[in-house]
Structure formats: structure tokens, C-alpha cells
TrEMBL record, chain A:
Name of this chain's protein: NADH-quinone oxidoreductase subunit H
Membrane topology qualifier: Multi-pass membrane protein
Enzyme class: translocase
Transmembrane segments: 12-32, 82-102, 108-134, 155-175, 187-206, 235-257, 277-297, 309-328
Similarity annotation: Belongs to the complex I subunit 1 family.
Biological process terms in GO annotation: aerobic respiration
UniProt subunit comment: NDH-1 is composed of 14 different subunits. Subunits NuoA, H, J, K, L, M, N constitute the membrane sector of the complex.
GO molecular function: NADH dehydrogenase activity; oxidoreductase activity, acting on NAD(P)H, quinone or similar compound as acceptor; quinone binding
TrEMBL record, chain B:
Chain segments annotated as coiled-coil in the UniProt record: none
Protein name, as recorded: NADH-quinone oxidoreductase subunit J
Principal EC category: translocase
Leader sequence segment: none
Example of a GO MF term: quinone binding
InterPro entries: NADH_UbQ/plastoQ_OxRdtase_su6, Nuo/plastoQ_OxRdtase_6_NuoJ
């Protein structure tokens, strides 16, 4: 068995098995995230939400998926066919490949690479291409305007996200995601770096184009933004990509600030629960906040969005970064 | 063996997409091929063991610079036929310059000699297996060559200030700007209320207009039910 696993075919088979073991639960989680979003928002608005298909409407996501599959895919005649299809594919692929480096438990990452954080940052900065390509290839004004907005928004918020991540890295001394989690053994970074935690969470909202920053698809002015021309599975790919991205960003938040697979306290009732369960619980907490924010806040105006990103978050995170560096240096806590 | 194979695959795609950048008809396709070229260059960095550089290449060039390229190119209104004409006219000059550069590179690499200890250094991305890429680069840039690094930063700062000075214009006198602080600090701009269940806005004094008759209690509390059909956008 060991000899087989060490051979090239064995390595390939192992990687495929690991990938499936991660992706299948992930896609089911995406399906049920849509259900959870509808149920939670319904509860917040004193409605019932989906309750017809299956018990408590639990089969609703599958009914929706089936409906999407059976619809006709329409490609506008003026569209650039290859790029029109490439856009949604890119969105979903990027949302999925980022999971390769996420450590679900100690040592449970498909690829535990040295530059894990940079890999995540690189993949999330590519997400804008799916949207820009889709908006341009649709050959429609609404789609193009939505794509331009979204591109500007994602590029702006990446800057402050990068600074927040640098602050965390200062406290860890490594770019490896497992090391980042292990460094939070005594205290989660959400406590000493609380302002950065808040900035990071708001930036992830903007990065995933979620309300209140969903200007890329602001239906009141742009119909559906960059996905206005998409139908059937091409639309479903965008939809899956957006929700997979939400889960990814929640996973990133819990790794950087909420201690990943670590229990809140290393004492009896908490450390009986296995690490992956803690990790999933933390992701679910972040996702609930995503939905909560969507049900609570009105959409930002575009200039306010840019102002928040460049004039408030960027200077604040820069100052906090310098402050953190000073504190670490003066107290001698700087990791070598 | 697999590393060599991967190198040739990535190198071949890199060169092919670089050719496509120059030859493709649609400028947007050119930018997309440029991005493909960046990716393959990042993959070559990975094979060479320079993982930090590979990631930075993707973050900086693909994630930021190429997005701006794509932005501009998508918004330009380009006349393809005129561009074709220009290509034919300038092709000989371009070919001559390219040829000269190629010959120069050939001469340089033909007569290049490595110092005996540099040849082994060249094969390793970092000074030792226990030092990661990030540490090695940090040591070089921020410790060994800190002054040069600071000078480079100052030069970039000057360039940035220059760009701002060139593009900054005075605001027109009649332009109105939003000052969120002033707006929120205005009296009665924001009213916090904790209404009892099933109370109307008029009963709480939030609607200041006097109501002609007392609101019927039944008409309250049904306004917000029909919004937001579901999870779809």
C-alpha cells in the first residue's frame, strides 16, 4: 500500500481522492447555503421561506439546480462566444481551486504550502476576471457597466485586505496557513487585532460582491449587472461561484482571526469536539453574519463605497499595521 | 522527468501565448493571452523553486496591472483595419530591432561564463533548504540592501507625486460635495426609535404631518412582507 502511494499513479489517485473528499461536501454546502440564506432572511422578515419541496423545504436547492439544468442556454448573437462561456467557468473554478490550501484540521490540507496566504490572495485577486470577461463578452451596456463597477470595487478592497493580512503575518512570522492557526493557540487574533478583524470582514463582503456592496448587480440601476445576459447553467455557475466564494472567505476569516480548527479554550468540554467541527462552526458563524448583513443593510452608493475603501479602510489599516509592528518590536513578541 | 516535462509544456505555452499577444486581431484577446503568459511564467518560477516570486507575479501583474490593462483596452474604441495598416508599415522596422536584440542576447549568452561557486548557487532558489523563499528575499531586500531599497521607494514616491500633480485639477466653484459627518450631525437627521410591536409611525411621532383621522389598527405591520423573493438576485 505504501509503495503504491509513493508511485506517481498512487500520488495522483490520492490527490484525486482528497480533492473529491473536499469538493463534494463543499458543493453540497453551497447548495444548502442558498437554502440557509432564504430561510434566515425569511425568518428576519417574518416570512416562512421555502417550505414546499421536501420536509421544511430541504430539497429546494436540488429542485432549483434541476430547474437550472433543464433550461435552455441562450448565448446572445452579438456576444463573444468563447469568452461568454469562459467567464462563468472561471468564476467557479477560481472559487474551488483556492480550497487546495485551506487546512481543515492540523495537517488536513491538500497542499500545505509555504506561501499559502499569498496563494489565497492571488486566487481571490483573479476572481475579478470572471466578472470582467463576462461583462465584456455579453456585449451589453448593463453587463459592461456592472463589470466595470465590480472590477474597481474588487481592486480597491484588495489593498486593505492585503494590509490586514500583513498585520496578521507580523504576529505569526510565517505565510503557512497551518502555522497561522497554530500561532493562535493562546489567543485568537480576533481579540488583539479586533479592528482589523472588522475591516477584513467588511472587505470580504465587498470582495464577494455581497450586499451591501452588491453594486455589480444592483438591480435598481443595472438589472442584474454583469450576469444580465446569462441563463440556465451559465448563470448557475456564477451563482455557485458566488456562494463558494462566500464560504471560502468565511474560511479565510476563521483561519486568520478565529483560530481555524482550534477550540475556543483548550479545556475539557471544548477539546472533546474534533477540529473540523470547530472549523465548520466558525465558517457557519461568518456565513450567518453574511446573510444577516444582507437582510439588514441597504445598498451602498457607489461613491460611498469607494470612499470607504480608499479614505477610511486603507489609512486605518496602514496605521494599525505600523502600530502593531511597533508594539511587537518594543515588547519583544516579534516572532523570528 | 516530470519536472522537465512540465517545464517544456509551460515554456511552450508561454512562448505561444506571447506570440498570440502580438498577432491576435482583437486587443482584448491580446490582453487575455498576456495574462496566460504571466501564468505560465509563474509556473516556471514554481518549477525553479521560487514560490514567493511566482505568487507575487500573479498577485501584482495578473491581479492588478493586467486588470487595469483590460479595463482600458475594453473601453477603447479601436479601428482594427487602421491597426492592420500600421502593422504592415512598421513590421520591417520591428523585425530589424527584434533581430538585433536577439543577436545581442545570443552573443552575451554564448560568451557568458559563471564563477565556479556561482554556478551551484544559481541552481538553488534559497541559500539552504531550511530557509524559505520569503525569508531569503526579506534578508536580501530589507537587511542587506535596505538603503538601495529605500532609494527605490523614494524614486517611486517622486513618480507618484508627479502623476498626482499632473492630473489634479481644481474643483469647479459650483460643485457640491457630500460631507457625511455634517449630514449625520444635523439635527433630526437620524432618529433612533424602539417602537412597540404593532405601533404605527404616526403614533410614535416619526411622521410629523398631522393625520386627518386616527389610523386603523388593522392596516399596520403588513408593509414589509412581500420584499425579497428569495435567495436569487
Amino acid at each position: 500500500m505504501d509503495a503504491f502511494l509513493a508511485s506517481p499513479i498512487g500520488i495522483l489517485a490520492l490527490t484525486v481522492a482528497q480533492t473529491l473528499a473536499l469538493l463534494v461536501p463543499l458543493l453540497i454546502a453551497v447548495a444548502y447555503l442558498t437554502y440557509a440564506e432564504r430561510k434566515v432572511m425569511a425568518a428576519m422578515q417574518m416570512r416562512k421561506g421555502p417550505n414546499v419541496v421536501g420536509p421544511f423545504g430541504l430539497l429546494q436547492p436540488f429542485a432549483d439546480a434541476l430547474k437550472m439544468l433543464l433550461k435552455e442556454t441562450i448565448i446572445p448573437s452579438g456576444a463573444n462566444r468563447a469568452l461568454f462561456i469562459l467567464g462563468p467557468m472561471l468564476t467557479l473554478i477560481l472559487a474551488l481551486i483556492a480550497w487546495a490550501v485551506i487546512p481543515v484540521n492540523d495537517g488536513w490540507a491538500i497542499a500545505d504550502i509555504n506561501v499559502g496566504v499569498l496563494y489565497l490572495l492571488a486566487i481571490s485577486s483573479l476572481g475579478v476576471y470572471g466578472i470582467v470577461i463576462a461583462g465584456w463578452a455579453s456585449n451589453s451596456k448593463y453587463a459592461f457597466l456592472g463589470a466595470l463597477r465590480s472590477a474597481a470595487q474588487m481592486v480597491s478592497y484588495e489593498v486593505s485586505m492585503g494590509l490586514v493580512i500583513v498585520t496578521v503575518l507580523l504576529c505569526v512570522g510565517s505565510l503557512n496557513l497551518s502555522e497561522i492557526v497554530r500561532a493562535q493557540k493562546t489567543v485568537w487574533f480576533a481579540i488583539p487585532l479586533f479592528p482589523m478583524f472588522v475591516i477584513f470582514f467588511i472587505s470580504t463582503l465587498a470582495e464577494t460582491n455581497r450586499p451591501p456592496f452588491d453594486l455589480a448587480e444592483g438591480e435598481s440601476e443595472l438589472v442584474a449587472g454583469f450576469m444580465v445576459e446569462y441563463s440556465s447553467m451559465t448563470y448557475a455557475l456564477f451563482f455557485l461561484g458566488e456562494y463558494a466564494n462566500m464560504i471560502l472567505m468565511s474560511a479565510m476569516t476563521s483561519i486568520l482571526f478565529l483560530g481555524g480548527w482550534l477550540p475556543p479554550m483548550d479545556i475539557a468540554p471544548f477539546n472533546w469536539v474534533p477540529g473540523p467541527i470547530w472549523f465548520i462552526l466558525k465558517i457557519m458563524l461568518c456565513l450567518f453574519t453574511f446573510i444577516w448583513v444582507r437582510a439588514t443593510f441597504p445598498r451602498y452608493r457607489y461613491d460611498q463605497l469607494m470612499r470607504l475603501g480608499w479614505k477610511i479602510f486603507l489609512p486605518f489599516s496602514l496605521v494599525y499595521l505600523v502600530l502593531t509592528a511597533f508594539v511587537l518590536k518594543l515588547t519583544g513578541w516579534l516572532p523570528v | 522527468m516530470i519536472a522537465a516535462l512540465a517545464f517544456y509544456v509551460f515554456a511552450a505555452i508561454l512562448i505561444a501565448s506571447a506570440v498570440m499577444v502580438v498577432t491576435s486581431r482583437n486587443p482584448v484577446h491580446s490582453v487575455l493571452f498576456l495574462i496566460l503568459a504571466f501564468f505560465n511564467a509563474a509556473a516556471l518560477f514554481l518549477i525553479a523553486g521560487a514560490e514567493f516570486l511566482a505568487m507575487i507575479l500573479v498577485i501584482v501583474y495578473v491581479g492588478a496591472v493586467a486588470v487595469l490593462f483590460l479595463f482600458i483596452v475594453m473601453m477603447l474604441d479601436i479601428d482594427f483595419s487602421r491597426m492592420r495598416e500600421g502593422l504592415q508599415r512598421y513590421a520591417p522596422i520591428g523585425a530589424v530591432i527584434g533581430g538585433i536584440l536577439f543577436l545581442e542576447l545570443l552573443f552575451v549568452f554564448g560568451s557568458w561564463q559563471f564563477a565556479p561557486d556561482a554556478a551551484t548557487l544559481r541552481l538553488n532558489a534559497t541559500p539552504g533548504p531550511e530557509v524559505t523563499n520569503t525569508e531569503a528575499l526579506g534578508q536580501l531586500i530589507y537587511t542587506d540592501y535596505i538603503y538601495l531599497f529605500q532609494v527605490a521607494g523614494l524614486i517611486l514616491l517622486v513618480a507618484m507625486i508627479g502623476a498626482i500633480v499632473l492630473t489634479l485639477r481644481d474643483k469647479p466653484a459650483n460643485s457640491k460635495r457630500q460631507d457625511i459627518g455634517v449630514q449625520v450631525a444635523r439635527a433630526e437627521a437620524v432618529k433612533l426609535a424602539n417602537p412597540p410591536s404593532r405601533a404605527g409611525l404616526g403614533q410614535l411621532g416619526i411622521i410629523r404631518r398631522p393625520l386627518p383621522e386616527a389610523p386603523k389598527p388593522k392596516a399596520v405591520g403588513h408593509d414589509h412582507h412581500d420584499h425579497h423573493g428569495g435567495g436569487h438576485h
